[in-house]
Design goal:
Distance between the termini: 31 Å
Number of helices: 20
Helix content: 25-40%
Oligomer: single chain
Strand order of the largest sheet: 1-18-17-13-12-9-8
Number of domains: 2
Radius of gyration: 22 Å
Structural class: alpha+beta
Bound molecules: glycine
């Protein structure tokens, strides 16, 4: 018996090793058809880690946890331990669930903490350095997600530990990001860190993160306690003291992820399951879809001036409502039922005039436009479970602060609060009192991890990064498929447009049709061409066949079998 088992086990181990992605030689795979399971994420090594976990018996939730942990190592610009995120899952037994692990304002935060003595916002304080960080939620979220998985955390975290300890070859985009922000990594940190070296980073250089590996090991051993108490929490608090931040060990110990009822609605016969507050994403998506549902988009055609104009006007109204009403539901009363009521949405768009922009209220212009912050991953498994996760540090590499001795970056999520009600944030978004800072409150988000069901079964598992553009990108992904019948690859790669009530501009990607741009300008829309944004990860299941697509805009990559 023994002599038979040993070669079999060796063969299995070798097969499994051969299927794993080599961290020093890998490339992105943008599309695949799979029979059993698939992952789409921002990095080939992270997608590979998720696929490996499913080969080893994990389900889609286990894989999503492993992908997030791997992203915290190989995609430090947005993958994280020091940030937060949302998981939306549809389990094969019909349960739908969301887990909210959004960051929280520290106990010593206060409403006006980013205003100068004249009452003006000091943007650098909410965006850069120690004071910009909220209490991280990711690790609590991953531990809470385990209720829906089956493998131990030590197994899910193992690929991330190896990648941090032995290193991996960085991509061209990563090298560019690290070089671009080198001065900030030096200026904003109190201790040396793995992201700064004497010579510029090059594609293929090995990034080793030993401090991060040690933190991951503490989490592997003690779960949430390995992060929110003991050595890691002590290192966070010490970093704060050195750098003038306010997160304490008490804040860390008090952090809890929350299981929330998903926002669920119908659009043209499909069931959309998405993230409720404190994300504005689900409500915004429902509002936008509701305002175009009865409009004959398919007759006017994909990217026709008529279809795009109607969608822009839906976006304008949804973003105006976001600014006025939305905030953390544990702190403010939000009229969600009224805002998403079908009749309300019909009335909201009733003043729309074909061929003419509806002017937005005049408010000071918004901030700079960034493209790749945040990251999304989609996973389906062989049992019929589907998981959609969006996770973030907010800006690229968050606050740029690496926790000394713990090796992970902290978020700059405090900027997602209305730092001064009425003034725009990083994404030019304006908010009111509903999203004002208060200790223990979660800042409003745009992250919109989404699952679409067709006849009660997962059909699309999707989401994207992109700050304020997240909701409008998702809006287009759903409309492109459900209304225009577009195939999955064309859908992800289709050029996007974006409008958010304020600023007044419509942004388009370079490849957007010139004739439609000219037609919109003739109608009176100020149109601006922006650098590519959004990185949609889409898995679609059609007649039992799984299609996985990674966005062309980044290092995004799919894996599966
Ligand atoms: N920090 C981007 C978002 O949560 O929407």
């Amino acid at each position: 018996m023994r002599s038979f088992l040993f070669p079999l086990l060796l063969l299995l181990a070798l097969t499994s090793a051969a299927q794993q992605v080599d961290p020093y030689h890998y490339s992105s795979r943008k599309y695949m058809e799979a029979k059993r399971f698939a992952v789409s994420s921002a990095h080939p090594l992270a997608s590979g880690a998720g696929a490996q976990i499913m080969r080893e018996g994990g389900n889609a939730v286990d894989a999503a946890i492993a992908v997030q942990l791997a992203l915290a190592v190989v995609y430090p610009q947005a993958g994280n331990l020091g940030g937060g995120g949302f998981m939306v899952a549809r389990m094969a037994d019909g349960r739908s669930v969301t887990i909210d692990y959004r960051e929280k304002a520290p106990g010593r935060s206060h409403r006006d903490m980013y205003l100068d003595s004249a009452g003006n916002p000091v943007t650098a304080r909410s965006l850069e350095g120690h004071l910009a960080a909220g209490v991280p939620g990711t690790v609590a979220g991953l531990v809470a997600s385990q209720a829906y998985g089956r493998l131990p955390l030590s197994k899910l975290i193992a690929p991330a530990i190896v990648l941090a300890e032995k290193g991996f070859a960085i991509t061209e985009q990563e090298a560019h990001g690290l070089n671009r922000l080198r001065d900030m990594f030096i200026r904003l940190n109190t201790q040396p860190n793995a992201f700064v070296k004497d010579t510029p980073w090059k594609t293929g250089d090995t990034l080793i993160q030993q401090d991060l590996a040690n933190t991951l090991r503490r989490i592997a051993k003690k779960g949430g306690k390995g992060f929110y108490s003991g050595e890691t929490a002590r290192l966070v608090a010490a970093e704060m003291r050195r750098g003038g931040g306010i997160i304490t060990e008490t804040d860390m110990a008090a952090y809890k992820a929350v299981v929330r009822q998903p926002l669920e609605f119908m659009f043209r016969g499909y069931t959309v399951i998405t993230m409720p507050l404190p994300s504005s994403g689900g409500i915004g998506l429902q509002q936008m879809l509701g305002m175009v549902e009865d409009f004959p988009l398919e007759k006017t055609g994909f990217h026709s001036p008529e279809a795009v104009q109607r969608m822009i006007e839906a976006e304008r109204r949804a973003y105006a409502d976001r600014a006025e009403y939305l905030g953390d539901p544990d702190f403010v009363k939000v009229p969600v039922a009224q805002l998403t009521d079908k009749k309300y949405l019909q009335e909201r768009i009733a003043d729309y005039v074909a061929g003419k922009p509806s002017p937005s209220k005049s408010i000071k212009a918004g901030g700079p436009f960034e493209s790749t912050e945040t990251t999304h991953l989609s996973v389906v498994d062989a049992e019929g479970n589907a998981v959609s996760v969006t996770t973030t540090l907010n800006g690229s590499y968050g606050s740029k602060v690496v926790v000394g001795g713990a090796g992970f970056l902290l978020n700059n999520e405090m900027d997602d609060f209305s730092v001064k009600p009425g003034a725009p944030n990083l994404y030019g978004l304006i908010g009111t009192e509903a999203n004002a800072i208060a200790p223990g409150k979660r800042m409003l988000s745009c992250m919109t991890p989404t699952i679409v069901l067709k006849n009660g079964k997962p059909y699309m598992v999707t989401g994207t990064p992109g700050g304020s553009t997240i909701i409008t990108s998702l809006f287009q992904t759903l409309v492109n498929d459900i209304v225009f019948g577009m195939d999955a690859k064309s859908n992800v790669n289709a050029p996007k447009f974006h409008h958010q009530w304020w600023p007044e501009d419509v942004r388009i990607e370079k490849e957007f049709p010139a004739a439609t741009k000219a037609a919109l300008e003739k109608m009176g829309y100020p149109v601006k061409v922006g650098s590519p944004w959004s990185r949609t990860e889409l898995i679609r299941i059609v007649d039992g066949k799984i299609e996985a697509v990674g966005d062309w805009r980044g290092d995004d990559s799919v894996a599966g079998e």
